[in-house]
Design brief:
binds geranylgeranyl diphosphate; about 0% strand; mainly alpha; globular
């Protein structure tokens, strides 16, 4: 499955990149500077994990990539918005992201904030567009939009990021740490794994199972990110590392963190049982995410 999952990820990454390009205004759209900044933020060479999750979980729900390209692009645009905001001097004050200069280092802080806001609002528009194109029932589309709002707002990503900044430099307990990680990372994973199935009309039990899969996967991913932050150089990680951020490694030893990753991946995969062989790729994705250099 090792090379199979790599080939799958490469193929889907190309599908996603084409969608990102298609759904963003061109960089010469007036006013050009902000559209350039938006594209710089969105097109950094990332793994495209969240949009790929949209595609993979929609497939489980019986849909095809073409059915949910707007939703997949929306997930990456939200993610890109969080990254460029996180790098700002008022937040993580990082200068390197995805192997190149952070957005504000190229476009300045004001246009980086505007680019992030535009990416976020664009994501909402894309989810609505997806619903219109699929002729999704009104209640389902309303739910999809509501889930995006909840995952990105103060009871989701914003809450997680707020607490992360609030406790910077302080000792935190495991509960607070779990809140931070599940909110600043987990909620977007859950959204990525459920948005396609919601739009595509999956049953409630399937949506719940996929959400729980993603919740565990997201937490595992964040612990791996913490390990990478501690162990990798900026050249390898493609971003500033060893920063003073809340990390599982401030509470547990690296070996324990590794064991936690294994435990979380096992739990994630447990939620795939109802899907049988159809979930083969989601199993492989979970194993891949747990790898130290994911
Ligand atoms: C814009 C909705 C919105 C919220 C703002 C700034 C903020 C609130 C949240 C930031 C949350 C944050 C930076 C979480 C880190 C998540 C994480 C582990 C990112 C790294 O993801 P990868 O490795 O990155 O998938 P690539 O570059 O591969 O896409």
């Amino acid at each position: 499955m090792g090379s199979e999952i790599e080939a799958y990820l490469k193929e889907k990454r190309e599908v996603v990149e084409a969608a990102l390009d298609r759904f963003l205004p061109p960089s010469d759209e007036y006013p050009p500077r902000i559209h350039e900044a938006i594209r710089y933020a969105a097109f950094g060479p990332g793994k495209r994990l969240r949009p790929i999750l949209v595609l993979a979980t929609t497939e489980i729900a019986g849909g095809a990539d073409d059915n949910v390209l707007e939703a997949a692009a929306a997930l990456e645009f939200i993610h890109a918005a969080t990254l460029v905001l996180d790098d700002l001097p008022a937040m993580d004050n990082a200068s390197l992201r995805r192997g190149r200069a952070a957005c504000h280092k190229v476009y300045g802080e004001a246009d980086t904030i505007l680019a992030a806001v535009a990416l976020l609002t664009h994501a909402f528009g894309l989810v609505a567009l997806n619903g219109e194109r699929l002729r999704v029932r009104r209640e389902r589309l309303a739910r999809a939009v509501r889930e995006v709002a909840l995952a990105t707002g103060s009871v989701g990503l914003v809450g997680g990021q707020h607490m992360d900044l609030e406790v910077a430099g302080k000792t935190v307990d495991l509960g607070t740490l779990e809140y931070i990680h599940s909110h600043k990372t987990g909620h977007l994973f859950i959204l990525a794994a459920t948005l396609g199935p919601i739009l595509f009309g999956a049953g409630e039990a399937d949506i719940t199972a996929l959400g729980n899969y993603a919740k565990n996967l997201g937490l595992a991913f964040q612990v791996v990110d913490d390990l990478l932050d501690r162990e990798a150089t900026p050249e390898i990680a493609g971003k500033d590392t060893g920063r003073d951020r809340t990390s599982f490694l401030s509470l547990v030893a690296p070996a324990e963190a590794r064991a936690l990753v294994d435990e979380l991946v096992k739990s994630a995969r447990g939620w795939l049982k109802p899907f049988g062989a159809r979930a083969q790729l989601l199993h492989a994705l979970a194993a891949r995410v747990a790898e130290p250099t994911s």
